[in-house]
Amino acid sequence: MFPYLFSPITINKLEIKNRVVYPSLGLLYSRDGKLNDRYVNYFRERARGGAGIVTVGPVGIDLLGIGSIAMSLREDGEIPSFRSLATAIKNEGARAWVQLYHAGAYAYSMLIDNLQPIAPSAVYSRMSKTTPRELMVEEIKKLQEDFVLAALRAREAGFDGVEVIGSAGYLITQFLSPLKNLRTDEYGGSFENRVRFARELIELMRARLGKDYPLTIRIAGNDFVPGSNTSAETVEFAKMYERAGVDAISVTGGWHESRVPQLPMEAPRGVFSYLALNIKRAVKIPVYASNRITDPELGDRVIRDGLADLVNLGRVLIADPEWPRKAQEGRVDEIRPCVACNQGCTDEVFSGRAVFCLGNPRAGFEGERVIRRADKPKKVMIVGAGPGGLEAAVVAAQAGHHVSLYEKSDDIGGQLWIAGAPPHKHELLEFIRYYRTMLKKLDIPVILNSEVTARTVKEHKPDHIIVAEGAEPLVPRIEGTGDPTSLTAWDVLRRDPMIGSEIAVIGGGAVGIETALFLAAKGTLSPEVLHFLISFDAESMNRIQEYMYHGSKSVTIFEMLPTIGKDVGRSTRWVLLDRVKKFGINVVPGAKVLSVAGGSVRFEREGREETRKFDTVVLAFGSRSVRKTTIEIEKTGVPFKAIGDCVKPMKINDAIHAGFLAALEI
Fold first, then answer.
1. How many CB atoms lie within 10 A of CB 87?
2. Which end of the chain is less crowded, N or C, counting CB atoms within 10 A of the terminal residue's CB?
């Protein structure tokens, strides 16, 4: 299966068994900057799953560059622990890499003992919310030496190769960018001067590491920041890196501060592979493609069609470290999906917390969350086929228990169908695909259209029950909520009924925004129609943009808080708010809704009452727990565990993790 993806390749003189690369991703699994068992277990599992290269990183070269809580190789005393990690990775059949890193102006002062970050120039950073101190020339030389010394330590620790991060808006890109580098000495100004830091660094590393040691670099294919470098300039950087001595180039999207989405579901699969092709045309060394390469067919096609030579699978291998092995063995449907939610990975890192995964409860817990075969298998009844119940059923069956899954509706999935309905949220439906496959593989009976009662339990005599009966929409006591003009967000997203053209959405949290976007997108251009119109110059770009964002519905969001989207993660909130603006959705913040009777929204704002008329009112107030089945089961005396929304309204990750843990506890 996928012969191009799983063919070997050579970097420098080192053979890699396949084209799958696990890239450097921040994990924050220690608070003292030291490697520990959690890191080792995590990276070992990515290697065991079949990746050709496993990259450990980001690894700091000094205190100012990364802070005190992330991994570093700034001292010789770190070599023994890194040697153990390299051995663990290589023993599982992967090549072990280290990515060396310096944040420059992106460093957070609270993580570096409240010291001032350093950068090429004293230009305010929107990421760290501070102005760095401009580097002196002697400090630049010291930084280059620190990079070299860290690389030599990685080699001594037994790593097969070293990567330098020259992307995402970190130190090297700050030297390259005319937006961030305002120097007037030999390290600023002209193209030749702006590339001097990176060129000298690579040349020094190549000289000290030797000609046969693999040295790679990760670059931004386009900064996607106005005034900074575009895909035209990055080609010249790539040529410079090749001349200086790098053996391969990993190409990603833009900077962290870019207003072009890099990681969320809004970014189409394989969106930045064209940037890898742009670099590949200019150099003779291998090139990696990155960002949203989620399925094996796409990865194989990227290589087959000549866009890149290797593919980076970052969050994908957090979600399922066995992705390579499953793909190679033809078990694609068994791959646990990465849905690009960012909730457990990117959002956590940017909040200074350890990485987990929404859909993989073992990510970051590989050492302790181990599924073991039960000594005495039990007869287990799972009630509710939402994400929590589905995960519980799969894990219980994998542990050897005899599992039956009961669902009161006519299909599995629960609220996944609702969560996956809005534009660009369809990736969430991949969970349903995965669980269908696993239910079939594990031969788990699924009894649909069945509401479990105490009588059901007595008839089937289970030894243990896991209840995941879910929640229902929360409908507040507001006048008019029962009118024909009033619907819940669940009604809209699950049934997609025909509704009027003037719509009010009451509630500006994540559900309210997603529902508003779902409605505002109706009647707008599909990607296929958009491609057709542009290909044949059928409309002006101004008209096309108007048709892209103005469809058949006019939507207004009413929110009691001063701003909308307070419950949305940092890495995706700005994307949602940008789309709200582009689709012309009107937002009324600070509004206490008093009545929605007859489609008239009466609300209080800044001490005054107002009324606006709409065809349809959509209530997006969240959910409340349902405990009907739980109460029934309590009567039976059978041991049980209630999980998910029936305990309290939760996020998808809470339900999946709770289902996993409940199954382990049987």
1. 15
2. N
Whether the Cβ atoms of residue 255 and residue 169 lie closer than 8 Å to each other: yes
Edge-to-edge strand ranges of the sheet holding 502-506: 486-488, 616-619, 502-506, 554-558, 586-588
Give CA–CA dist 512/509, Å, rounded: 5
Tokens (6 digits) for 415: 């609220």
**Cis peptide bond N-terminal to 286, omega within 30:** no
Q: Residue 98 belongs to what domain range?
A: 9-269+314-350
- Give the length of the chain: 666
Q: What is the pLDDT of residues 178-206, one digit of tens each?
A: 999 999 999 999 999 999 999 999 999 99
Please report the sign of the dihedral spanned by the C-alpha atoms of residue 241, residue 243, residue 249, residue 254: positive
The total domain count for the chain is: 3
Q: Which of 617, 414, 650, 623 is nearest to 516 (CA)?
A: 617
> End-to-end CA distance of the chain, in Å?
37
Helices (H), 157-252: 171-176, 191-194, 196-209, 231-244
Residues 440 and 332 in one domain: no
For residue 55, what are its two tokens? 């990259």
174 lies in the same domain as 252:
yes
Contacts of 500 by beta carbon, 8 Å cutoff, 6+ apart: 485, 599, 614, 615, 616
What is the C-alpha separation between 185 and 520, in angstroms, rounded?
52
What is the rounded distance in angstroms from the CA atom of residue 307 to the CA atom of residue 287?
9
Give 167's Cβ-side CA count (13 Å radius).
27
H or E element that contains 39: helix 37-48
Residue with tokens 């542990």: 399
Cα–Cα distance between 470 and 642 in angstroms, integer? Answer: 10
Q: How far apart are CA 214 and CA 52, in angstroms?
A: 14
Query: Which pairs count as long-range contacts for 631-634, CB under 8 Å and 24+ apart, including other chains?
Result: 632/452, 632/453, 632/454, 632/457, 633/383, 633/452, 633/454, 633/457, 633/465, 633/467
288 is a domain residue: no
Q: What was the pLDDT predicted at 571? A: 83
The CA angle 194-197-203, to the nearest 5 degrees, is: 125
Percent share of the chain, pLDDT over 90: 92
Question: In sequence order, what are the residues at sequence separation of 6 or more whose Cβ sits closer than 8 angstroms to the Cβ of residue 546?
Answer: none
Amino acid at 209: L
Which backbone phi and psi does 348 adopt, to 5 degrees? -70, -45
pLDDT in tens, 264-310: 888 999 999 999 999 999 999 999 999 999 999 999 999 999 999 99
Q: Do 600 and 611 touch, CB atoms closer than 8 A?
A: yes
* Residue 193 · residue 240 · CB < 8 Å: no
Q: What does the DSSP assignment read for 262-276? A: SSSTTSPTTTTHHHH
Among 574, 640, 81, smallest CA distance to 382 is for 640
Helix (H, G, I), strand (E, B) or coil at 472: strand
Tell me: do 500 and 422 sit in the same domain. no
Look up tokens 């599982």; give the residue. Answer: 92
Distances from the Cα of 162 to the Cαs of 92, 157, 176, 215, in angstroms? Answer: 19, 11, 21, 5
CATH classification of the domain holding 386: 3.40.50.720
Domain-embedded: residue 606: yes
Question: How far, in Å, are 362, 508, 518 from residue 490 at the CA level?
Answer: 30, 15, 12
